[in-house]
Each structure stands twice: as structure tokens, then as C-alpha cells.
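Hello again,

I reread your note about wanting to compare the complex against the isolated chains. To keep things tidy I'm splitting this into two emails, and this first one only covers the full assembly. Below are the input lines as submitted, including protein chains and any nucleic acid or small-molecule components. They are followed by the predicted structure of everything together. The single-chain runs will come separately.
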Amino acid sequence: MKESKRKKLEAAGWRVGSADELLGLSAVESLLVDLRLALSQALRRRREKLHISQRTLAERIKSSQSRIAKMEAADPEVSFELLLRGLFATGATRREVASVFSEPTTTAKRKPRQAAS
Amino acid sequence: MKESKRKKLEAAGWRVGSADELLGLSAVESLLVDLRLALSQALRRRREKLHISQRTLAERIKSSQSRIAKMEAADPEVSFELLLRGLFATGATRREVASVFSEPTTTAKRKPRQAAS
DNA sequence: TTGCGCGATGTCGGATTTGACATATAGTTA
DNA sequence: TAACTATATGTCAAATCCGACATCGCGCAA
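Full-complex prediction:
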């Protein structure tokens, strides 16, 4: 069914069911934040397991130590591409990266705010 | 073991085995290209399944129709973040996105054109 | 103590990516 | 035929992200 036709049906009072389970923008944002965190943690785990310094990994992907530090700190300024690049450079396979995506987000705890004084 | 110590051992002729299976930069690049393609294909599949236009999806993530088109064309100048944003906006879960990562790159076949008349 | 390696954090000029817009083509409907 | 919708493609100024660099604290070894 074309969208134009669907719109006509809906305008006529029909509900075209299928799956219009589209997430709100904030829900998407939240997923991205969680994902960035999960990837950054995975990167640190993998790097430490290889016993290499941030500087060494940085050289591998032609980046800099400070940027690797920001990646591992889940700094919102670092792109997902850079995080993926880092993971692959530690020898991660697509499958291993996939598991980071599907895992139930390691921490669960969200920004523990301090109580009001 | 600290990296400095490892270096000393290696300088002394030792091989510190563990897993130094670090990929070359071009191998990483190749993985990223494949991944971008897989994500763009998944996005198109999901959008079409929902019977929504590129314009509609664009509004959902506050982007533009032309950018969605570029995303689905796996244009190298669209970011992974935008691709992920698009997928999540179609209702994809982390698990579903993970499956895109782990799948053996949805085949090699490129744009099945119709035969010449 | 001094010196060194590692990592965290901030800054900055330049590179990249963005949404918006224009425009072209193709398919559909009137 | 014209009008409308969906998609592809190119451009551009503004926003974002980059590598590089400086600097700081920490832990360890000389």
C-alpha cells in the first residue's frame, strides 16, 4: 500500500494498523546514550585485556591519546564511528560488537543525582 | 602487567604472547564500509515495512528527506550515529540492530536492476 | 627526592557532517 | 495532458567532530 493511499484511508477514519510503533525522539536519544556508554566500556575492556596503552591504540587508528581517553569516557563529542573503529582495531569482530549492542546495558544505573541539600 | 614492563621484556628478546591480533587500518576501514552498507539496507527494509516515506521518517528524527535518501544509499558522508538514529526511529531494538552487525553482510548483490529491454 | 609512563581534561584551528533547499526523474491519478 | 507524490542528487552555511597539543595528577622506580 502506498503512503498516499494510507493517508486517504486514515483521513476517512480508518486505522491502518500494521506496526506504527515509532519511538519518540527522546527515546531514540536515550538508546543512543546507552549505546555509547556500552561501546566505550567494551573498548576499555578490550584495550586493557590486550595490555596496550591509550597512546598505542591511538597510533593504530591514527588518532591521539586524548581522544581515546574521551572515547572511553563516553564523551558525547566522540562519534560512533570512532568508537567502532577503536573496537575493530582491538581485534573485535562484527559479532563481538553485536553482542555489545544486544547486551542489556552493563550498568543500568542512570546518572545518580545527589539529593537536594 | 604494565605496558612499560612488557616493553622491557620484549626489548630483552621476549615475546609477550597474549592476543596482539590487531587489525591493520585498511581491514578496519573495510569492516566499517560493510557495516555502513548493512545498516543502510536494514534501514530501508524497516522503513518500507512500516509504509512510511523518507519525508515522514525525516520528520521523526528532525532531519530531511534528502538526508534519509543518502542514508539509504550508504553515502559515506552520513554518520553511523544518524543511521542508528534512523533505525531506532523505525522501532528497531538494540537486539535488532545487533543482528544487523552480526549477520554475514546481507549479500553482495547490489541494486537488482531490471534487464535491458 | 627526581623522573617517567599512563591517563584525564581543556582548548583550538581545520576537517567533516549537518539540515535545508533546489531540482530532476519516475510513477500515479485525474 | 497536468498535478501530485516519492525518491535521488547536488550545493552550501552552520554545526559538529577531529587530531594535536598542553597540562595536570597519580603510581612506580631510580
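For quick reference: Residues 28-102 of chain A form a domain with the 434 Repressor (Amino-terminal Domain) fold (CATH 1.10.260.40).

B.
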